[in-house]
Amino acid sequence: MKDSVVAGGLDSLFYNLKLLPHELLTMIVTVLCHLKDSKALLPPSCLPPMVPHFTGRQRECEEIVGHVASTSTRIVSIWGSPGFGKTSVATAVGHKLQDKEFSVYFFSLRGLNSKSDLISKLVSFFRRASTEDEIPQRLPIDEELFQVLAKMPDKFVMILDNADELLESGAPNVKEDFVQFLKDILSRTKKATFVITTRESLEFINVHFKDHQAVRIGPLDESFSQALVSELLPNAIAASDREKIAKICGHVPLAIKLLCSTISKDSTQPGQFLEEWKESVEHNIVELVDKPDYPSDLRLKFLFESSFLRLSVQEKEAVVSLSILSEDFNISVAAAVMGVKTNLEAKKSFITLPNMVYKISLLLLNLKKNCLASS
User: What pTM did the predictor assign?
Assistant: First the structure.
């Protein structure tokens, strides 16, 4: 019975189509073929799943989505210190954009050292969307990419995560090449928008774009920090312990996750764990909080060491010298510790010190200070 109804419905559809004027029927067929080709042109999404326990970033996500949806913005940069959740925010933004029917493609630039590496990575992905006869043979690889992207039927977003890994790789002219490459794509297609994550602002690392908006990711609000602790330690944790953990970790999401993971694997209650932890706080703070079984880019030790290695010799000396001081140190004391003659020299060294390393130093200082003060 069901099959006969379906067959009858199709017969009726074909009969009605025959009654349409030839020009209208031709137009319908053309549109349907175009839609079919458009769908075939889109490569599958490579957006990672949402990061577990993502909380407290609704405002930042809405701001970024608003910028991407704006016709006046072509590049949005997400920046902030290590461990603050830039990749998590970028991923969440990607999912929100997909819900709005944007095509979103996520690429980590970790391990890339040159413009050629970036082009090869993008071409190998987007080439799947084109048949061999759609792209003329023997084109330069960058021109092949430009032509593929120019054929994208709808507005699309490319998320370039950890872009500073490429920008600070040390390759000759890598920053200039990166900027020009993105400008070339944006000039060839009006449908592309980029979301870029970096530890420092693009302006700080001397990368400049037109039609660019920047969104900084800072520490979580206190309420969201405590909510994250409750999610990670759901077994009736005391409000005082929840507040203490959030404060110890400086409201930094990665630090909270690392510490809560350590507590959850321990057989003691959070309050007892924190009491025992105070006795060990004089040892290496990074090793106490770090999780060796985590991926390298989620380890506190990796984030600190990779940030420190990017510094100049003078900046490294400043970090080591300043690390013995409290958070509210006097500039005269800093000058004496750093071995410079005037406060002006100390201020100059302090101002030029990259924000990401200073923030990590404050995080470690908070871990130690708040543990000792919590008795």
Answer: 0.70
